[in-house]
Write a structure and sequence with these properties.
single chain; alpha/beta; 6-stranded mixed β-sheet; 18 strands; globular
Length: about 675
């Protein structure tokens, strides 16, 4: 065990934030801390990092924090650097101070050993070499440059002063420093904020394989599912541990609540039975001993707490558009977007009741700002359809400092809708969790999540039939995200939204507008189907510059906005049908069926070999699990169960690829007969 908190209490002034906290970090566990906004998640991270102290009395010996030796704890949070004038490279190189110290001492020893070959000098030099290897001192610059580029920076940015970067970019720099420092316990507070999808996906793999412990506060459900081994939930000031990722936590919590309700009801029924018996016979002399015995049974019971329902309070309401738009909502043709120069060229069509997610590289928010008139177009054209009334949500503007921080929530809302009566204002605000005296809260006192709710409330009150949303789920807790998902699913208008929350996109999107490095591509499909399409493109099975059938419209839509792409489509398929795999192969001048069949056969042999090796590994793990010597070693058994589950999942993946390859091979062989 690396770290343990026992029976901790944390207070701010007279308010108890966390009560009876029992928390453990083992070896290389990846731990999630989840809960509603304001429940104390960040407070727990600060307690672990030493920034917050427990409120327990010193005399209580059972309370305290225990660490296995000295644990280096690294904490990622919003950071303002001490000296904003130094370059990024100078700031990051601070991480490698131990490396530079080793180098300096090794150079000194090298000079000494020219005249002195004492054994103690050789031993010290060998120890320093081992330390350098452990610190990755021989590859520190390569590690730094690789990590820096992983977070979307160019190498030339290393020479820029820290102060020239935005707050989000400075947080990325701090993240790079933290990862390079390799702490024993890494604390991450909302690590996926400010990151694009490719970086998030890379970070998932990096953290999953990180050889030490990681504790994460995040509302990114897909990220938690892919990284986490253990989940702690904070609810009603208390914390509870659940083995497994976020999905496993949800299942276990529901099962635990059902069991607690059943046990509570059974215990209450038993208490009532015993109490009724005591009341009936308490005045009967021959029943005195039995009555006393039954009273002791009740007194010695460990009372089961009455189950509390899940804290699922969230904003709600069904918001119907005031008027319905026509079928064609938005037409974008060769639209050039950017600031001083063209960043991207975009073409796509948006139809009524579609929900298109805008994802990918640079240009997403710029597109939305151009469509709503905050930025001028640099070329091309776009037009809204007949009857379209749009509402725009910009999360950066929503959480920015208010020009009137002393204005109350009610005053701010009323200023936008001056003709409404107080009861109507309160009703609208109440549906977004601003009830009672909350409406008199000043804007300057609102959290990021509260500001987002207020901005959404004002936008929905207009009842537009087209929602243009820029990162609507930022600053929301998981329950809030689920509430917004339900609202948008039942919304009868049209939605165009930017988000890096993949789970949210998976639940909402009916189409994907992907900003790629060299073009913008539209995929008229769900997010999961989009991922399958991208995987096929990466394998070379489908050309990346070809489009799919455009859903209900039955037309192929090219969104790169260039005539060359249109010519490519005409070469492999008609405008009414999507290009098939055989179409793509047939039309390529270098098409060689023999080579394709040979390649598929090689792949088949490779997958069969991989499957055999996986079966051997699984059999070995299952044999270890049956070892009677491990019957009481729960930690080892848990590791084996996790390894078996991982290997079974690996087998399923290999089988899927094997079956897919066999199918392709059969099709190709039939075609060549």
């Amino acid at each position: 065990m690396r770290y343990q908190i026992r029976h901790a209490i944390v207070k701010y002034a007279a308010d108890t934030i966390l009560e009876d906290v029992n928390f453990e970090i083992h070896d290389h566990e990846k731990i999630a801390i989840i809960g509603r906004n304001g429940c104390g998640k960040t407070t727990l991270l600060k307690l672990i990092s030493g920034e917050v102290e427990m409120a327990n009395p010193d005399s209580d010996e059972e309370c305290g924090i225990v660490m296995a030796g000295k644990q280096r704890i690294g904490y990622l949070r919003q950071i303002s650097f001490e000296d904003s004038s130094i370059t990024v490279e100078e700031e990051i190189l601070k991480v490698f101070a131990p490396v530079f110290s080793c180098e300096k001492r090794m150079q000194e020893l090298t000079e000494q050993m020219k005249t002195d070959t004492s054994e103690h000098l050789l031993k010290e030099y060998a120890a320093l070499q081992a330390k350098m290897e452990a610190l990755r001192g021989y590859t520190y610059r390569q590690d730094m440059e690789t990590m820096f580029q992983r977070f979307g920076f160019a190498l030339k940015d290393l020479q820029r002063p820290i102060g020239t970067f935005s707050g989000g970019q400075q947080t990325k720099v701090a993240f790079v420093k933290l990862l390079l420092s390799q702490p024993d316990i890494m604390l991450l507070d909302e690590p996926t904020n400010h990151l694009d999808m490719p970086t998030i996906e890379w970070l998932e793999g990096y953290l999953k394989n990180y050889p030490k412990a990681v504790v994460i506060v995040s509302h990114d459900r897909m990220f938690l599912d892919r990284v986490i081994d253990v989940t702690y939930e904070i609810e009603y000031h208390r914390i509870r541990r659940y083995p497994g990722n976020y999905t496993a936590f949800l299942r276990q919590k529901e099962e635990a609540l059902a069991k607690q309700e059943k046990d509570y009801e059974a215990q209450q029924a038993e208490i009532k039975r015993l109490t009724d018996w005591i009341e009936k016979w308490k005045n009967t002399p021959t029943k005195v001993a039995a009555t006393r015995s039954k009273r002791k049974v009740i007194e010695h019971m460990v009372l089961i707490e009455k189950p509390r329902k899940f804290d699922t309070k969230a904003f709600q309401g069904q918001f119907l558009p005031q008027t319905a738009s026509y079928h064609d909502v938005l037409s974008v043709r060769g639209l050039q977007i950017g600031y001083d120069s063209v960043l991207s060229k975009v073409s796509f069509e948006l139809h009524r009741m579609e929900r298109i997610a805008v994802i990918g590289e640079k240009g997403k928010s710029t597109l939305l700002k151009t469509l709503v008139g905050e930025l001028p177009k640099l070329g091309g054209q776009f037009s809204f359809g007949t009857g379209v009334e749009w509402g725009y949500f910009d999360q950066q503007a929503a959480v920015a400092e208010s020009q009137n921080p002393k204005m109350t929530i009610m005053e701010d809302f009323w200023e936008e809708y001056p003709t409404l009566k107080e009861v109507e204002v309160r009703s609208a605000l109440g549906s977004f969790l601003f009830s009672g005296d909350d409406v008199y809260k000043e804007l300057g006192q609102l959290s990021g999540g509260e500001k987002v709710r207020l901005a959404l409330c004002k936008m929905f009150k207009r009842r537009p039939n087209l929602l243009i949303l820029d990162e609507p789920t930022n600053h929301m807790d998981i329950v809030g995200k689920e509430a917004l998902e339900q609202m948008l699913k039942s919304y009868t208008g049209t939605v165009l939204f930017v988000s890096h929350d993949r789970y949210f996109i998976k639940e909402i999107a009916t189409g994907i507008l992907d900003f790629q490095a060299d073009k913008v591509q539209y995929y008229p499909c769900t997010y999961e189907e989009y991922l399958e399409q991208k995987q096929k493109e990466a394998q070379g099975l489908i050309g990346g510059n070809k489009t799919n059938a455009a859903g209900n419209s039955g037309k192929s839509r090219n969104v790169a906005g260039e005539a060359a792409d249109n010519r490519n489509i005409s070469q492999v398929g008609s405008q009414s049908n999507p290009p098939t795999l055989s179409d793509v192969f047939d039309k390529k001048t270098y098409y060689n069926p023999g080579k394709i069949i040979s390649r598929l056969k090689q792949q088949l042999v490779k997958y069969e070999k991989m499957l055999g090796e996986s079966e051997e590994r699984l059999a070995e793990l299952q044999m270890q699990q049956m070892d009677t010597a491990l019957a009481t070693d729960y930690e080892k058994l848990t590791e084996l169960e996790q390894a078996i589950a991982a290997e079974q999942s690996n087998q399923e993946s290999i089988l899927d690829r094997l079956v897919e390859t066999e199918t392709e091979l059969d099709e190709m062989q039939e075609k060549t007969v």
